[in-house]
Amino acid sequence: MSLAANTWLGWLLAWVLSGALVGAAIGFRHDRLLFGIGLGALLGPIGWFLVARSRAAQVECPGCSRHISRTALVCPRCGTNVRQAQARNPRSALRQADRGKPW
Questions:
Q1: Is 77 helix (H, G, I), strand (E, B) or coil?
Q2: Whole domain around residue 63: which residue ranges?
Q3: Averaged over 7-17, what is the pLDDT?
């Protein structure tokens, strides 16, 4: 190979590795590490933007505040029905806490 081809391949490799590293950092913050590495390596800054704008793979449980799967119906740790808790009005949680307590 010629010197020009080696230089071109070196720049391409540096672009892909730097894109993958930055994508991994962004994906790690959004619980989508492999998605971040892949899009960062393939698309560079456009992939970083897509990963940063993507929805997290996990959500916070309204009962125990731990991370659970977005598709979970019931929290495996505390047993809270996630769908009902998300649909509930925040004031109803306060009413539930006040029941049975004397003023």
A1: coil
A2: 57-103
A3: 90
